[in-house]
Amino acid sequence: MSRRFTPKVVTANRLREGDVVYLAADDSWTPHHHEAELIEDETRAAARLALAASQPLYVVGAYLADAKPGPNGPEPTHFREEFRTRGPSNYAHGKQVDLV
After folding, report:
1. N vs C: which end of the chain shows fewer Cβ within 10 Å?
2. Closest CA to 13 of 93, 80, 84
3. Is residue 2 situated within a structural domain?
4. Within a domain: residue 15?
């Protein structure tokens, strides 16, 4: 028996900076998880991941990450993805400046 599909977002890293980015519904890349497209259909998820993979000069390492609906947009469901929303952990810069 196959597993039920759970909602996902497409995430990757920008090629030049290495920053974590998320695929939005308008095909743009955003650094904000809550602005990502929440994908609830397995076929659409495969198509969106294929779109990400077709942009090797802009993003690398694209994959589908579990997410759930939240009041302000998609929210991560795993601590690894929650951690990635905050950026590097060695010192406060980039996205972390907003969290301090």
Report:
1. N
2. 84
3. no
4. yes
